[in-house]
Amino acid sequence: MLPAALLALAVILPAARALADDLPGFVHDGQLTLCTNPTLPPMTFVNGSDTNALAGMDIDLARRLADYWHVAFVPQTMDFEGLFPSLSAQRCGMVISGVLKQAGRLRNYDAVAYLDSSVVAVARVGTPKIREMADLSGQTVAVQSGTSYAAQIERENDRLRAAGRPPIILQQYPTEDQVVQQVLIGRVHAFISQDVELYYRQKQLGGKVTIILAPDYPDFHQFAVYIRKDARDTALLQKAIDDLTQRGEIAGMARKWGISGDHQSVFTDRNTPSRFDFATFFGALFSTAFLKGAALTLVIALLSHLTAIVLSIPMAMKLNGRDSIVRRLLSLYVAVFRGAPTLLQLLFIWNALPQFFPIFREHWFTPFLATWLSLSINESAYQVEINRAALRAVDPGQVLAADALGMTTAQTYRHVIFPQALRIALPPTINEFISLLKTTSLASVISLQELLAVTQIQVARTFQFTEYYAAALVYYLAMVFFFLFLQKRIERRFVWADRNKASADAT
């Protein structure tokens, strides 16, 4: 029995070791984690109202790579500009999100190409075609922020300035759907993108745009999988991509998502209605995705503000006290977090902290926790000023009177100072909460599926801007109006005695 067991171990252990040797280093705990921005159909997008239902060429490729290595596939969605910082922070093993293989990125990351593509300049239908990018001199062009299109246009502008011609006017937007929208509404002359997205958009765009130029840029010809620099991992990834290519699987994915063949005629379909679609609007308004997004927005706002209030009260008491090192440090804290943009603080906590403290790379540090931490710290810097002013507004004579009655410091604060300060601090506190409720929309950049993130994902999928934006607006207004109503009721409950009413009662 024992010899048989030893023989089995002798066979299994080398096989397991060989299997581990075939796995790239970015596969951990039997999981292949992917960072992607799901707003670029047909490469990566949300297919339906469920924000977890990712689909597209890139998602199929990532799933197939996970199958190839016999590991689980774990996608993480986020803003495009957060992809590479998250890769550097080891929050994911690879980036596949319609990202082009370019020399500038290869200085910091390794990449393996998997699909050919071409850059295109697109304008409204009826716009004359141009012969070169220089023909866009003096025109306004939109691109997605975080992409390499902006750098390419700047290189074109350098040549235009050298020739004494006006440069191309560049506008950058956070998502691709917002870029396309600028052309549709006539705000910009053209936008720059990849051909594969536009082929997929043919029915959504409904013949409203046309390709006016397909410039030949060497750095814009191939989509690639990006990983952290490692020669062995790159070789294993290249082998996997080569095997999938030889089997025809990657070509099959391209055909599935309409990325192959002759696509220059896709801009002739004019069946898309331009009127407001009430069915889409009401469908979004009562959808589970929007309800969950609104609930998450409300929860993160309430938790962050309550945490900020708890943090700010002792700080406000200390700031109203005598001069000390602690008081100066708290003043610096308030100045720093009031002065730094909220978005910058959010991105720093999500993308920079993991590089200094590896513990923040773990799965427990979710976008929800990062948002809660960031907004709580930021909001406490504002709330402390509200509380400090309210505490200082209480008449010092009442403190002396409480002391004369033999009250302790704790009793004085509880029965004299806090009740009066509450009435003063309440209106600006509720106003600050309403502002925070809208600030939560910034969390979409780190993939928190709050209301605005859900809206952007659905817009990217359908290109029905007005209907989904209108549904989101209804939710935001409903929440804000509820708290405005609540504010009036609370103020009426805690309001100081009205002098006119008191005079009328006296007579």
Spell out the key features of this protein:
507 residues, alpha/beta, D-Maltodextrin-Binding Protein, domain 2, MetI-like fold, five-stranded mixed sheet, three-stranded parallel sheet, 20 helices, elongated
How would you describe the overall organization of this protein?
The chain contains 20 helices and 13 strands. By secondary structure, it is of the alpha/beta class. Helix 11 crosses helix 19 and helix 15 (367-393) crosses helix 17 (409-439). The radius of gyration is 29 Å and the shape is elongated. The chain starts with a helix and ends with a helix. The model is unreliable at 6-19 and 261-273 (pLDDT under 50). One of its GO terms (cellular component) is ATP-binding cassette (ABC) transporter complex.
Beta-strand content bin: 5-15%
Helix content: 55-70%
Instruction: Report the structural category.
Output: alpha/beta
Shape: elongated
Oligomer: single chain
Whole-angstrom Rg: 29 Å
Describe the biggest sheet?
5 strands, mixed
CATH superfamily of the largest domain: MetI-like
Q: Number of folding domains? A: 3
* Head-to-tail CA distance between termini: 106 Å
CATH fold-type name of the largest domain? MetI-like fold
**Uncertain regions spanning at least 5 consecutive residues:** 6-19, 261-273
What CATH architecture of the largest domain do you see?
Orthogonal Bundle
